[in-house]
Amino acid sequence: MAILVQPFDLKQVYFQKINALIRQVEETQSEAIEQASALVADAIAHGKGVHVFDTGHMLDSELIDRAGGLYSFKRLALKFELNNDVRKRPQDGEKDRSLEGLMKYALKSSNVHPGDVLIIGSVSGKTVFPVDLAIEAGQLGVTVIALTSLTYSRLLESDHSSGKRLFELADLAIDNCAPALDAMIEAPGMDAPICPASGIASSVIMWAIEARTVQLLLERGIQPTVLKSINNPGSDKFNDAQMRRYQETGH
Questions:
Q1: pLDDT tens digits, one per residue of 195-228
Q2: Where would I find the SIS domain in this sequence (predicted)?
């Protein structure tokens, strides 16, 4: 009698992995999420800003100006472009730290003020920009919350001259529980693992923070600004009023 062998289903493996990841986040990071929510709620209640800086793994696109999301969360983004077409020459073997210090001037040009909250998302937490930003924001008197993979980051050497990684500089570090190198699945026939964990885990963490922040603000008698979907009839007028309200109240 022939034995039927079920095909290897990477889709099912993915669902198992991602569900286990979210459970791990809930079980291990609830206290950090609670602390972050309290910091954010307190900042909003006092008219302070909440800024999100992401190194490119979905976080700021997922959160900012979303229907059902807190309008108080604002993207902090920096674009730096240099054109110099001189012939390429050998490097001196040292790490490229030429951009260290840029964040000091970026913050001076920004609308980030002392007492604000800055959430920095970086999976590895080792590169110059997020580390430099955490240093400069801390010196400015901004509360820094890091969203990173502790397992991954602890294996890596910082690119910054301080030798520090993001989680070592933040006032509060939240672990997105992504594995080292981020990808979750070893796929037969592939030379590299697939399906990174950090993007979805970080989004889940941030929406949990937003949910708890709303609750904490309501307990203070503060109704925070939340936009409706633009596909909802009449939402344009509602959203316009909400955005004006945010500018007036800070929440």
A1: 999 999 999 999 999 999 999 999 999 999 999 9
A2: 40-219
CB 17 within 8 A of CB 184: yes
Number of domains within the chain: 1
Burial class (CB in 10 A: 0-12, 13-18, 19+), 174: buried
Tally Cβ neighbours within 10 Å of residue 73.
Answer: 23
* pTM attached to this predicted model: 0.91
CATH number of the domain bearing residue 191? 3.40.50.10490
Helices marked H in 79-228: 102-109, 128-140, 150-153, 166-169, 198-219
Lookup: tokens for 213: 């922040």
Range of the domain at 142: 32-74+100-249
Is it the case that residue 144 has pLDDT exceeding 70? yes
Instruction: Indicate whether 240 belongs to any domain.
Output: yes
Query: Is residue 23 assigned to a domain?
Result: no
Dihedral angle at the C-alpha atoms of 9, 13, 19, 25, nearest 10 degrees? Answer: -160
The percent helix, strand, coil of the chain (3-state, each to 5) is: 45, 10, 45
Q: Is 54 helix (H, G, I), strand (E, B) or coil?
A: strand
Looking at the domain assignment, is residue 134 inside a domain? yes
